[in-house]
Amino acid sequence: MRKLVLLSSALMLFNSFSSVAETIHFPEEFVPLQVGERLIEQSFFSRVDDVELAPGTYQVKMKYTDLYEQGYDDHQVVESEPFWVELTVESGKDYDLVFNRASNAVAAEVFAESPQVSLKAKGSELAVPLSIVSYRAASAPAQAVASAPVAATSNKPATAVPVTLPAKVPGGQAGLKNMPSAAAMLEFWWQQASPEERRAFLQKVSN
User: Residue 61 in 3-state DSSP?
Assistant: First the structure.
């Protein structure tokens, strides 16, 4: 009976991570590369346009890349260096990354030197500017961090592939999509609990 209760608690905890994620949509001119220490794997055949994040504050690495036509059958690619921004996701809100696209390649090259992007909640008229930041590594507990990077899974060209993040835990960010085992998650939350919470939990599962 006790094992059944523990397993049920673990499943409820796992499902709570996947049910609170909100979506950030990236326009085709911006490529999401990394969230915290976790890589977002992009490929020519499977581009990641949507990133799902649980409510919390994150550091996101991205790159600007745009294509401009230069006369008949000619074009110019304009790219920026990868850069980091810090953004905050609120519960119950999906977002779009927005920017003012340059009208020509010359203006785009100026923009690429110092990209300016904003985060806009869907249905809102207000876009919040995002500042470029220097990345600060988060000290997430080892039990809460998945070991594998996120991989794009779609075989269709230019298809949005969601990337799921669990909720942000005290002390740092949790890992990306490949969740740790139920036992590891229980061990992590046991370490986070106060002595009173531990006693209450043991009393509950022993009844």
Answer: strand
Structure token pair of residue 174 = 């949790």
Q: What is the pTM of this model?
A: 0.59
Helix, coil or strand: residue 15: helix
What tokens does 101 get? Answer: 């696209």
Q: For 66-106, how does the pLDDT look when each residue is reduced to its tens digit (9 = 90+)?
A: 999 887 778 899 999 999 999 999 999 999 999 999 999 99
Which of 164, 128, 129 is closest to 48 using CA atoms?
Answer: 164
CA distance 6 to 189: 12
Candidates 140, 147, 199; CA nearest to 172 is: 140
pLDDT tens per residue across span 160-177 = 444 444 444 334 444 444
Give the dihedral sign, CA 176/79/30/98.
positive
Query: 48: exposed, middle or buried (C-beta count within 10 Å: 0-12, 13-18, 19+)?
Result: buried
Contact between residue 147 and residue 36 where contact means Cβ atoms under 8 Å apart? no
Residue 27 CB neighbour total at 10 angstroms: 15
The half-sphere exposure of 35 on its side-chain side, counting CA atoms within 13 A, is 32
- Give burial (CB, 10 Å; 0-12/13-18/19+) of 166: buried
